[in-house]
Amino acid sequence: MEYQDSSWHETCFICRRCQQPIGTRSFIPKDSQNFCVPCYEKQYAVQCVQCQKPITTGGVTYREQPWHQECFVCTACKKPLSGQRFTSREEFAYCLSCFCNLYAKKCAGCTNPISGLGGTKYISFEERQWHNDCFNCKKCSLSLVGRGFLTERDDILCPDCGKDI
């Protein structure tokens, strides 16, 4: 065999780590030594935090740890997070949909999650929250954002509709 202007017996051109002849297999030179691909990956390649296998191309870094793109998934639904907007809670990564369904406060008007992401504004009053679009008078549907309001049990009312309470 010939490599880098040197001639080798086939049995002498071996992997530095496993000592097996490289023959016609792919190899990777490092520091004037040759390694078969599996040995090189075991010794030098970055390992995925999730599956512990080498990351040979691409990869994602999250919290300063390496992941395969296909291993970096939502904790809840297991959909890939690479290239997607996501958030975390207690060191676990979630897609926005799962995070909102599991942890976000629910709107007292429509009961959908209030994400607060992307600058979404919401109203908070006495342990309850509303999307801005849902903060309306229960009787006449007038928006109460930035206005005075009254409460009647769980309902919010504009001053005109609430004057009889």
Automatic annotation (TrEMBL):
UniProt xrefs under PROSITE patterns: LIM_DOMAIN_1, LIM_DOMAIN_2
Gene3D superfamilies: Cysteine Rich Protein (2.10.110.10)
Organism domain of life: Eukaryota
Cellular component, GO, one term: nucleus
Keyword vocabulary terms for this entry: LIM domain, Metal-binding, Nucleus, Repeat, Zinc, Zinc-finger
Residue ranges occupied by any LIM zinc-binding domain in the UniProt entry: 46-105, 106-165
CDD domains associated with the record: LIM4_FHL2
Annotated GO biological process: negative regulation of calcineurin-NFAT signaling cascade; negative regulation of transcription by RNA polymerase II
Subcellular location: Nucleus
Identification of the protein by name: Four and a half LIM domains protein 2
Organism, as annotated: Leptonychotes weddellii
